Amino acid sequence: MATLPLLLLGLASGSACSWESPDYSRTPVLFVHGLGQSSVVWRAMIAHLESGYPRDYLYGVDIVPSTMTNARAAATVLAPAADSLLARARAAAQRGGYRGELPRRIDIVSHSMGAVSSRWYAAKLRPDLVRTWIGLAGANHGTQSLCSWNDETSRELCPAFATNANTHALQVALNGTDGAWVDETPFGLGPDRPGVPHIPADGARSILYLTIRIEP
What we know:
Number of strands: 6
Oligomer: single chain
CATH superfamily of the domain at 25-138: Alpha/Beta hydrolase fold, catalytic domain
Structural class: alpha/beta
CATH class of the domain at 25-138: Alpha Beta
Strand order of the largest sheet: 2-1-3-4
CATH topology of the domain at 25-138: Rossmann fold
Distance between the termini: 13 Å
Helix content: 25-40%
């Protein structure tokens, strides 16, 4: 599984090679960690991508506390981080003598709970700034595994596939209900909802659905 994030990032913006010099035409990448984690989890990937990507084009955000509700994290952490990343990337491109178009959008690579907060940012706050969104093991439809946790973030994602807008507004806002889907992004296979049907790639919108879940 260690190579999966690199594979997905390669689908979005091209693979980095050890002999490449910084390419200022690339899209800056914002990395978003999951519940109980920090930007440390992305250090190896960022170090790998520095061969090809300018260092100022890569940034791992820290959501503190990591149990912050998803909408709040999107508005108070991810939004300013995305703006700062774009500003740094543009400045780096200018310093590097790049004469092409300066970065206008970002790619997002996220994991677990970070997939939910970053999806909220991309869908509800600044869709104009996001070129590609990648979620690894994202709890897009919630998860039963958080039901034993007492923090507010876990409660908004438990139970999985909630349809009551009064008690689980986040899930309904992102996914809709059984009769009115908003933006279907399957959580994946597993005990939450066995037999989730395969969703083909959406060529018109350049969306690739790749759902992988490994049970302990």
